[in-house]
Amino acid sequence: MKTIHVRQLVAATAAAALLSALLPAAAQAAPDPQGIVAFDARTGAVRQIATLDGFLTAASSAAPEKVARDYLAAHRTVFGPGAAGLAGLRLRKDYLDIEGTHHLSFTQNVDGVEVVGSGVKVHIAQDGRIIAVDGSPQAGLPASIASFSAAGLPASVGDGQTRQVIYGTRLAWEVIDMDEGQLSVVDAADGTVLFGKSLTANDHAQTWENYPGAPAGGTQHTVRLPVTGPALTGNAAHVYSDVNDDDVAQESEEVRPSGRGSFDFPFVDFTAQVGAPCSAQRQCSWNPAVPNSWQVNRAQNATQLYYYLNTWHDHLNAAPIGFTRRAGNFEAVDGDAVVGQSMDGANTADGLPDADHDNNANMTTAPDGIAPRMQMYLFQRSASVLAGNSGDAADIVFHEYTHGLSERLVVDAAGNSALISAQARAMGEAWGDWYGLDYLVDKKFEQDDTVDGDVREGDYILAGRSVRSEPIDCPVASTEPVCAGTPAAGVGGYTYGDYGKIRSSGGPEIHADGEIWAQTLWDLRKTIGSWQARSLVTRAMELAPADPSYLDMRNAILLADRVVNHGHGQDRIWQVFAARGMGFHASTEGAADTAPTEDFTLPPTK
């Protein structure tokens, strides 16, 4: 997917005409150098229209749906399906975010059957101005479902949740299999898999407000749990210890009150039994040399995980982030509270976890209305990894949960997650680190002092080191040893041109390359403040086109500043991104591009 600035297209007559038609009237006489038109390389269709220094339309008192439909109708030749097709767009959702912006998602349907991978989203400011349009309706759809040939539901789709859809020109079945963590689109005629996407974000994050023994937030204290039943169940989550990994909450795996309605389970420290790298400051929770030793802290850990899930639900729900019910958050009232599986697979090898159930954690997120699943594993002791539990570490739990935030906010018009290609998925990992560490530093459970490189993801599990190649607070050109980078990427904080060069073994990898985005957002946080950064980074997720690149998301942050801050932060935002190689002339072929071109220049002055 190619993102093109107006300045790159004005020489082409056809392109100039297209831009003149799409951008505001004020920009038609002299094309705006910050106008953006992005194209889908697969279909050739326009996938995003925006202008970074303004809006696409004037203010309007009309209803948001009318503003959107009028704009699409006025530009029907650009968006594809013609007048009839546009009139047939169904408003799936009009989501009003906490800043007053309407995010309207329109889907296409044939006889009530939704066309997946299609549709269009229109983002409208509180005063009725259109901020951006992304997605492109599919042209040439048949008038009736009878035009398609189809067979019954193929046996190959399994026992997942299914619905009939149209994919391209084919009638198909969309299947969501939570056991496999997979969404598939299967041809209705012959069972061919037309599209597949993993719903699970797996992380090798090696990391009770913080973790057991932490200098700040590392001591158990009495809190109030929002429990609505006789187990760890409430509006935000249901947690049980899925020690046999069958995804079913057996009675022996539920955690019941210890007495008098209290979930008071003191943590038992295994440091003396296990030894280094366990310590008083980073305490171990089990002994990998003794089968079933994890049982001692089973109830404690499930309770701790439940507390974290409720804490993070409330943090993301509140301003300025605003991951609310309307936004698609996770709540039992909507049938999709987080299913938290603590100590997942701890008993898969006769009282111990097997190799598939240790040193990891994951979050599987389906579309809105289907409960996500978080699986937290035990960590095995080694020279640098302590015998801990991922459910005891705030940064790991918050990281995993934040995958759910991005998977629910960066979506296509049908509401399906649009974090698909390399750069988009790398940002998913980066957001997981950034939101969690931002919170922990803001609450003073972790410190960000004047020395570079002291904010580390995975500090607990890795006994004082970071699970990433560098801490998140490594600025460009830092000379601190912990910010030494990798041989291919060089020393100091990373820039856009380091993409694909950070992993020590070489080649792109989403956790490694996500460090570029995470460090850039940490710079943004330092420049504009935590509160403002949380607001802009979240609003940008809602404004971004499907499968965004780093530059798409940079542009979305700039658009968000127009909405939230009346554009007052544009200069500072550009300075942050330019310093990290995502300047005005930076370029990429889209989210799948693992060798983007960096640039350190600011946009031209008017």
From TrEMBL:
Domain of life from the UniProt record: Bacteria
Localization of this protein: Secreted
Signal peptide extent: 1-29
GO process terms (BP): proteolysis
Keywords: Hydrolase, Metal-binding, Metalloprotease, Protease, Secreted, Signal, Zinc, Zymogen
Primary subcellular site in the record, as a coarse category: secreted
Xref: InterPro entries: FTP_domain (IPR011096), Fungal_virulence_M36 (IPR050371), Peptidase_M36 (IPR001842), Peptidase_M4/M1_CTD_sf (IPR027268), TAT_signal (IPR006311)
Keyword Cell cycle annotated: no
Cofactor names: Zn(2+)
One CC-aspect GO term: extracellular space
SUPFAM superfamilies: Metalloproteases ('zincins'), catalytic domain
Molecular function terms, GO-annotated: metalloendopeptidase activity; zinc ion binding
FTP domain span: 88-136
Family: Belongs to the peptidase M36 family.
Protein name stated in the entry: FTP domain-containing protein
Species: Paractinoplanes tereljensis
Species classification: Bacteria, Bacillati, Actinomycetota, Actinomycetes, Micromonosporales
